[in-house]
Structures are given as C-alpha cells and as structure tokens.
C-alpha cells in the first residue's frame, strides 16, 4: 500500500484558488533527502509531511528547494486533511510539533483556526536596493526573524507591483511581505509575499506572514480582530485575531487531489 498524499487549496472555499499545498501522511519518520525530493516532485510552494507522535503529529514543511521553519497554509492544509478524513474528530484539537514549537488547529464550523506565535517586526532602515527591486516607494520597513515587512502607499500600488526577483533573491531573508490598507470595506488590510530565497517568487497566500501582519496592523488600526486578503493572482482570505503573544489565523480549505506515492 502506498503513502497517502493530498493536494489541498488553502485559505479558500473553492478549488483552484488560495494556496495549494501538498500533504503527505507518513507511518513514521522519513529521511530528509527523500522528503525534499517529494517536495520537488510536487513542485508546490510547500509540501507538509506529518506522522503521529504522542498526542498529536510531528509536522515538517519543505519548499521545492529547502525545509522551512514555519508555514501557515500547509499547516491549514494538514489540519484540513486530518479533519476531513476522520483522523482527528472535528470536536478535537489537531496538535502539531514543529520547528516553531507546538501549533494547534481547531475546527470551527466551516473554518479552521490555527494558533501561531506572533512574529513581531522591528523598524529598520530601508535596505539598500529593496525599494528599487520592488519598484515602488516604501512607507515603512521592518524586519522580524524571518522576513522584511514593507508598507506601500495603497492597495493599487501593491497590486501593481512587478518585482525584480533576481534582485530580491539577493536579500538574506526568507521573504518580503508587502502590505497596505485595504481600499475595500470588506477587508482591513491586504498583502503580497515574495520569497525567491526559498524558491518561491510569489506565494499565493502566506499564513505565517500574517503572524507578523496581524500585530502590525492591530497597532495601526486599533483593533484585534481583522479580515485580510492576500492579493495574488489566486487570492486568499484570512481571519486574523490577536491573543497575547499568539496570533489566531482562520481559513478554509478544499482537497483537489487525493492519491498515493508508489
């Protein structure tokens, strides 16, 4: 019998939108180089690998190029698979042991809520060449443990960005989070995420970026519950709320492929 593997569109309630992630259910630990090869074969922004451990699951994430420390959409996809296949009952909590510590997921009607650590940014001087690589003026620049966070003047500027990915690849960070206030009353803020350093020019919807975006916009907007939109070609919706030093990320997901690795 083969190893179950799924492709799930995360942060969306319809197929072919949101951010696709691979989810591979293992019987136990697997070699790192094998997981990297599977992720390269899947050729998605991230593929998650998980197996039962204690009262939850050990979870690791791989881009086609490298293993990463934190990934929101592939965690949402993993929780969706566990809930939808009955491996975790909707009334129970999915618990994941990861390189970023314990992460949890709770089923809330048609949504899944992830509990992530806040990744606060600190203001920095705009790195030399970053505005030019993005092709716009920057209102603000900050940096957290993973990424640069930059605010641009408007949602239209954000949507019109056509970054120079060769130049962005030179910055020694996981990625660049670009954000602005939303021009629509339906959302509080919008964002895009560029990560050529880890093999992803633009990630369609980035849950982990919102563990930084949530606190940033909470301070600016004076609210702790927000609705966000990631303005990639596929697009995705994220509920964001703050709870102490944690950020709660709500999303929906849809399975589009289910199969086995031979």
List unreliable stretches of 5+ residues: none
Taken from the alpha-carbon principal axes, the silhouette is globular
In CATH's first tier, which class of the largest domain applies?
Answer: Alpha Beta
SSE order: EEHEEEHEEEEHEEHHEEEHEEEE
The termini sit apart by 8 Å
The helix content is 10-25%
- What's the number of extended β-strand segments? 18
Q: Return Rg in Å.
A: 18 Å
**Which CATH architecture of the largest domain is right?**
Roll
Named CATH topology of the largest domain? Diaminopimelate Epimerase, Chain A, domain 1
Please summarize the sheet with the most strands.
18 strands, mixed
Helical element count? 6
Strand content: 35-45%
| CATH superfamily heading of the largest domain | Diaminopimelate Epimerase, Chain A, domain 1
The total tally of domains equals 2
Mean pLDDT: 97
The class by helix and strand makeup works out as: alpha+beta
């Amino acid at each position: 019998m083969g190893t179950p593997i799924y492709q799930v569109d995360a942060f969306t309630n319809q197929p072919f939108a949101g951010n696709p992630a691979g989810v591979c259910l293992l019987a136990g630990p697997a070699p790192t180089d094998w997981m990297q090869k599977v992720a390269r074969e899947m050729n998605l922004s991230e593929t998650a690998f998980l197996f039962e451990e204690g009262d939850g699951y050990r979870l690791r994430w791989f881009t086609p190029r490298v293993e990463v420390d934190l990934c929101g959409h592939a965690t949402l996809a993993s929780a969706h698979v566990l809930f939808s296949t009955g491996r975790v009952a909707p009334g129970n909590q999915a618990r994941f042991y990861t390189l970023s510590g314990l992460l949890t997921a709770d089923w809330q009607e048609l949504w899944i809520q992830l509990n992530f650590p806040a990744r606060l940014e600190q203001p920095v001087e705009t790195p030399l060449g970053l505005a030019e690589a993005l092709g716009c003026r920057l209102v603000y620049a900050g940096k957290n443990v993973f990424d640069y966070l930059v605010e641009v003047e408007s949602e239209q500027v954000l949507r019109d960005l056509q970054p120079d990915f060769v130049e962005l690849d030179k910055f020694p960070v996981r990625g660049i989070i670009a954000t602005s206030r939303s021009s629509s009353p339906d959302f509080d803020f919008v964002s895009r995420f560029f990560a050529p350093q880890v093999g992803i020019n633009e990630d369609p919807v980035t849950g982990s970026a919102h563990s930084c975006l949530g606190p940033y916009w909470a301070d600016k907007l004076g609210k702790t519950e927000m609705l966000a939109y990631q303005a990639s070609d596929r697009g995705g919706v994220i509920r964001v709320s703050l709870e102490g030093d944690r950020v709660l990320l709500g999303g929906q997901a849809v399975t589009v492929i289910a199969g086995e690795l031979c």
